[in-house]
Amino acid sequence: MNKKTDIDIVIRYLEDPDNEQHKQQLNDWIQQDTANLDIFLDMKAMWQGDPLPAASAFDTQGQWLQLSTTLDTLPATIAPTPVAAPRNTRVVNIKTRYWWAAAAVLAIGLTWTWLGPGSYKTITTAQNIDSLHLPDGSMVYINTNSTVRYSRTFGKNNRHIKIDKGEAFFDVVKNDGLPFTVDAPDVKVKVLGTAFNVKTAQSGVKVFVQSGKVAFKGKGSGKEVILTPGQEASLARHGNAVDTRFYKKNNNILAWRTRCLTFDDAPLPEVAAALSDFYNVEVNISNQQLNDKKLLATFPNMPLEEVLDIMRKTLQINITYKNNLVEIY
């Protein structure tokens, strides 16, 4: 990050995060290079006052020399315009702004010196599903609109993954000497070798185990629950109580990865929840008398309109779909 324009993009967003133009500029910049997300997260942490790691062997004199060179090359347009009446105030504001930006460059340099050039590799998906082959042989399948990070030293002295948002499925290679851990908001998951799904949302975090065993631990309460195949644990955001339940085989939790929805005499509310999750739409059952209706069907990666048409004919119900809202009545 050596361009002042890049610094300005981040600063403008941090100064006014609700500004849509600033959001778009920041998003475009992050999309240019995945390393930019690491830089932004570091700058955001500093902006919020989070402490940086303690220094070890760091060339302070060399970094300040580089900083001085950067300041010397700032464009002359930073100087005040002679005819401007409030020029003294503007000089202070601009100098303060660029000194802060230069300090941010130095701090980023410090962070990267201590932690390595971007201590995490970041994968972000938009409207696509992606997969990641980790250095230890494990596989990660990443759902849409998700962000996953892993250490650049992954597989050497750690097997640590972070889910900042969204959902991912893990197929983990067993290594008794190096446990596989996943950090999600309010939750830490630890495994030795298994296949499991982690879903984060505004409401909380859910972990579903397909095979093997998983230790699910809430960071707030410290309570640890051992999950076995077919079992799911959930923790509300900022909550302490861990809820668990067992699912039958056809539960559609992993439908986002298999791209197939299967309903085995599933009650209509369960069908509605699965459709909402799979197609990212809102589904509302306005006639509660329909809750007892059950659906027996399989939909292999079919468009939502076709699924709704089959449901309408099979269950003899009324369904409308408009503006991302499905009404069942």
Task: Summarize the SSE layout with pairings.
Blueprint lengths: L3 H12 L4 H13 L2 H13 L12 H13 L14 H29 L4 E5 L5 E4 L5 E4 L4 E5 L8 E6 L1 E5 L8 E5 L2 E5 L3 E7 L2 E8 L2 E5 L5 E4 L3 E6 L5 E5 L8 H4 L1 E8 H12 L2 E4 L8 E7 L3 H12 L3 E4 L2 E4 L1
How would you describe this structure to a colleague?
This protein is α+β, with helices and mostly antiparallel strands and 329 residues long. The chain has three domains: 4-115, no CATH class; 120-246, Jelly Rolls (Sandwich); 255-328, Phage tail protein beta-alpha-beta fold (3-Layer(bab) Sandwich). The chain has helices at 4-15, 20-32, 35-47, 60-72, 87-115, 255-258, 268-279, 304-315; strands at 120-124, 130-133, 139-142, 147-151, 160-165, 167-171, 180-184, 187-191, 195-201, 204-211, 214-218, 224-227, 231-236, 242-246, 260-267, 282-285, 294-300, 319-322, 325-328. The protein is globular and about 55 Å long.
